[in-house]
Amino acid sequence: MTSFISDQDFTTPAHARVTADVEERTERRESSPAPFLAVVFLASVWLVVSAVPIGYIGAARYDVFWGDTVVGVAVAIVTMVRMLRPTPALAWVTAGLGGWLLIAPLVLQYGWSAPTANDLAVGLVMLICTGLSAAS
C-alpha cells in the first residue's frame, strides 16, 4: 500500500525535479503525432460530409457515396482511438483505408469527376499525415 508521502522523491532537490519534469513534457510535446492525427480526423469528417456539396447522390453514385461514408467513419473511429491511446499498429489501418481511397476510382470506375478528385485528395492527405504521425 502506498501513500502520498511514500510516492514522493525527497532525495532530489525540488528545483532539479521541476527542471526534469519540464524537459520531459517538452520532449513529449515535440514528438507528439496529435497535429497529424487531427488533420486525418478532419479529412475523414470531410469525406463523410462531402457527399452533399459534391453531389454524389444527384449523380446516382450510391456506391461512391456509401464507400466514402464507410471509409470516413472507419478512419474517424480509428483516428480517435489513436488519439486516446497511441498505437502505432493502427496506423496501418488508416494507411490501408487511405490507399483504398486512391484506388477506389479505378476499381469502382468513377471516371474523371468531382468524386474522383475528392477521393484522391483526401486519400493523399490521409496517407501523408498517417506516415508523418507514425514517424513521430
Automatic annotation (TrEMBL):
Transmembrane segments: 34-58, 64-83, 90-111
InterPro entries: SPW
A Pfam family recorded for this sequence: SPW
Residues covered by the SPW repeat-containing integral membrane domain: 39-129
Keyword Transmembrane part of the UniProt annotation: yes
Keywords attached to this entry: Membrane, Transmembrane, Transmembrane helix
Descriptive protein name: SPW repeat-containing integral membrane domain-containing protein
Biological source species: Dactylosporangium aurantiacum
